Here is the input.
Amino acid sequence: MSVKTEVLELFENNRGIHLSGVEIAGKLNVSRNAVWKAVKSLQAEGYDIEGVNNKGYCMKSSNDVLSAQGIEKYLDDVMAAQTDIEVHKTVDSTNTRLKELAVQGEPEWKIILAEGQTQGKGRMNRGFYSPAGAGIYMSILFRPKFSASESLFITTMAAVAVAKAIESVVHIRPAIKWVNDIFCEGKKVCGILTEAAVNVESGYLDYAVLGIGVNVNKPEENFPDPLKNIAISLADTKQGNEEWPARDDIRCRLAAEIINNIGRYYKDMGNHSFMKEYVEYSFLIGKSVVIVGKESEELLVKGIDEHAGLIVQHKDGSVETLSSGEVSVKPLQQEAEKR
Here is the structure.
């Protein structure tokens, strides 16, 4: 472990507390000059660390830079022991990076996060806007012991895990738009993408990479057109606007809570225990929707079945269950405007 990494871990565990250079050097058994160089390097990377004469160095409580150390201190004991977290300043795509590692044999629970992505990935080959410092862009590697047909439940599990984390940490009640988007105040705040490789002989997944992108802070240049009308950050919500200046270390805390939730659900994946909450968080039930590409047909959402299929009713009264692998749906515009 480098001196800089050790210094950062010490600061993360003592936020808001001044530590003298002598004290830090003594704890880490390094020179004061090595401490000074580490602090300067961390400051250059954006960490909000102040130095005060006769008091020492202090990482401010409001510091909101993502780091493995900052996330790990909020993980429960089980997840802290089994995860391997790696944080980058910028990557093309956390999913792309993690898939490369998966092919090379990287074990389960490798997690990659980035401050920003240049080629963030969404469903249907869409991009995911990933400006530096504004969100949580995270991918988690699984090596599940179930068939490819069960892979949909990784996405639904993650949707519930994110929704619960937002509600717990930010105290905002989000909603799930079937199957993989999280909404706040009628706009998208999170996208989820699961990519997997299947062992042809066994029919089981070789690996699955779960990608999660959460809009947390306000982008410096706002959302570009046409995202302005359909995307929102947690900070831009009504409650976020009122309380955001007081929210300390928000991204590390939220990322850790998402990981903790996923860990609990994944352990019990076979029972699909999260499906009840998935239905409770859904905002499509009882709403009119259209299938993307078939906007001329209006459907009424009747519910979500135990396999995460969307149960819809046609105008002639017939009922059909849609698979997320077959279609995407969107609420009618007038419904979206009511929320």
Summary: The mean pLDDT is 90. The first helix runs from residue 3 to 12. The first strand starts at residue 49 and ends at 52. The radius of gyration is 22 Å.
